[in-house]
Amino acid sequence: MSRTDCEDLQLTADQSSGYFPALPGGLLNRGRYKVLRKLGHGSMSTTWLAEDKKRNADSPRYVAIKICTVSATHNSEESPILVQIRGLQDERDRLPLLWDNFEEQGPHGKHQCLVLDVLGLDLTAFRLSAPEKRLPVHIVKLFVVQIVEALVCLDSLGIIHSDLHGRNVLFATPILDTTDIETQNGSIDEVNIGGPFRVGEARDQDVSPYALRAPEILLKAGLSTKVDIWMLGCMTFELLTGHWLFNPKLESTGEPDEEEHLAQMLEYTGTDFGSLLDNSAARDKFFDAEGRFLHISEFRPDPIKVILVRYKLSKKEAVQAAAFIAKCLQLDPTERASARELQMHDWLKSAYGG
């Protein structure tokens, strides 16, 4: 969700937008919810702090109401997926709890409204508060093991998160430093869901921040839940180092150089694309008939374990962390670990004293 203050209320659904003009003091869902203040907005929604005037004994007084744009209301699967997750009850590890959902009529059309818990600091903000903008290895493990729990749940439902990064991993209570994390057993309240979809659905391929995009996104080779595993590997590296692993230069259009991005994947992972090129709808954009890059001929292999040492991890820590990241960053998604397999990885066994 964007940290900027204002969304353009004039944009319509035809412009892939159409925001709802909520205001503090306004009432939603036939007077049940009183809007208090804006929490933030993104390209597909605004989110508001509200008071539930007709709450049940087991529901919270204050809630976050995510009001989707008209465009997102028509095109997003978020609401039915959250309803499905709610049905899991105690098995919905680290995933959002949908308290209520309803529609509001606005000047541009109907808006889906999702009532969720109010949450606090996100994982990226917490990382950036650290002196070196990175986190100790044992703290990273505490977070990663819980994110994997959420991915196991989504995978069992055939749901692709598609937008897994630090801004979407949230704490319910104020976190000040790593001492607070250890005192609270490193508890993440929620892996927020913004643009989920089901395996097998036709979908715009550019679904995640460019630095986290899996090779199958760039190559337009079809998506599975293994996309989320790739993003987890990238995020693990970022938490440990404070930097993106993949950071291709920008072209004159302002878009990232995707061929350089793919080349970096080869250099850092040391794996190959396998059958991915055979399934790619964009192969000819990057490769010749023999599978060579069209514009890149020189490669400089740079193993992840070596990069981690440059970021001041000990050699032992770097080797162990790199082994986990490597399971996430196999270029061929059929060779990439599943969330369930990652739960059993040696690197995570010590997260809770195992």
Walkthrough of the structure:
Keywords: ATP-binding, Kinase, Nucleotide-binding, Serine/threonine-protein kinase, Transferase. GO terms for molecular function: ATP binding; protein serine/threonine kinase activity. Its EC number is 2.7.11.1. It catalyses: L-threonyl-[protein] + ATP = O-phospho-L-threonyl-[protein] + ADP + H(+); L-seryl-[protein] + ATP = O-phospho-L-seryl-[protein] + ADP + H(+). It is an enzyme of class 2 (transferase). The protein is an alpha+beta fold and 354 residues long. It has two domains: 26-117, 2-Layer Sandwich (Phosphorylase Kinase, domain 1), CATH 3.30.200; 120-350, Transferase(Phosphotransferase) domain 1 (Transferase(Phosphotransferase), domain 1, Orthogonal Bundle). Helix content is 31%, strand content 14%. It contains twelve helices and ten strands. The protein has helices at residues 70-75, 78-86, 123-128, 137-156, 178-183, 215-218, 226-241, 258-269, 283-286, 304-310, 315-328, 339-343, and strands spanning 27-28, 33-41, 45-52, 62-68, 100-106, 109-116, 159-160, 169-170, 190-191, 197-198. The strands form three sheets. Strands 1-2-3-4-6-5 form a six-stranded antiparallel sheet. It has a two-stranded antiparallel sheet with strand order 7-10. β1 and β2 form a beta hairpin. The relative contact order is 0.10.
Radius of gyration: 21 Å
Q: Which series of helices and strands comes N to C?
A: EEEEHHEEHHEEHEEHHHHHHH
Model regions low in confidence, pLDDT < 50 over at least 5 residues: none
Number of strands: 10
Shape: globular
How would you characterize the largest beta sheet? 6 strands, antiparallel
The CATH superfamily title of the largest domain: Transferase(Phosphotransferase) domain 1
Number of helices: 12
Structural class: alpha+beta
Helix content: 25-40%
Number of domains: 2
Determine the CATH topology of the largest domain.
Answer: Transferase(Phosphotransferase), domain 1
